[in-house]
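New to this. Explain the following:
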Amino acid sequence: MPLLTIYAAFITIVFIAMLIFDISGYAKREKKRVFKPWYPKALVILPVKGIDIEMRKNLEAVKNQNYKGSFDIVAVVDDQKDSAVKAIEEAGIKYIISDVRCNKCSGKVKAIATALRRFRGYRVYVVLDSDVLVGNRWLVRLVAPLRNRNIGLASTFPIFVPHRNNLWSYAKMVWGLVGIGLMESEITRFGWGGSMAFRNDLVDAEFMELLTNSDYSVSDDICVTKAVKARNMGLEYVGDATPSVQCDESAATFFEWANRQTALTLLGYRRNLIFGLVFYTAEALLLISGIVLAILISPIFLVLLLHTANSMFRSYARTRSRSVLIALLVLLMPFIYIRNLLYAKNMQYIEWRGVRYPIYKS
């Protein structure tokens, strides 16, 4: 069977390449850096639209920070009639109405821009999504790296926690782990808009123009990350401030979310399409080939499953879950990622909470 032999040789090369990638990934992962506490006057900006799962708990958590410095919280809503206003008022948090005019902006970007323009007397600005649950030392840990003026942005990335035990909520949990992997390497790190902090000296006219009047204005993540990189400043991943996000997904809401995240990633970093397709196709081939070649040629080809086993180990370690669904989803995830990439590359708009935003691809 010469064709099978040729394929076996090809997939062995793929296996070696992925093995090198896995080993180098562990080697390049940055050691955790410790920063002395810093307590500048900070403003926590909460862009809010609609009611999130356990929203009141999330709002109370951000209020109850163990932070020795002065910090204020302001929620920003699009409309006084927003269903979240009552929860915000009950939590005793100040809120304002978004009023920035911007044709390309998402509602969240408008909210952030509104707060930045109205509140100028702060040393540090922090953006926190209202569906994010933080610990009581989240703020002090997130802000601490910004003492170093060479660091322009400090950010975290969440663990998605199923609110109910269903397949698609666990799928979101496993899908999101790729974000933590990207955060752990300085090469692929980015600012996650759900929990990030930056100093006021970043907020100049050029920054506001990028935020509110560029092809990236649909995503605060992309805008802030690009602004920091343009200034040759560092991005710090604060792993010990990792928050959680409750999720309750169906197949429809999961794929809507995953496709949206992928489309935004491709908007900011177009080369990720090719990298992603190559990487996840290699993962899928190793999984299928490890099983098929072990049956047709020799059990020794089960070694091709080492990459999958490594992914499974890391997934369990990061989520601290013991659900068997994690193992199943690790097997399925390469195929899901490929589907997301192929679908997202042609998306002309994204939808979020009933609002449609065009994607401008210049």
User: Anything to note?
Assistant: The mean pLDDT is 91. The domain at 42-160+189-241 is CATH 3.90.550.10 (Spore Coat Polysaccharide Biosynthesis Protein SpsA; Chain A).
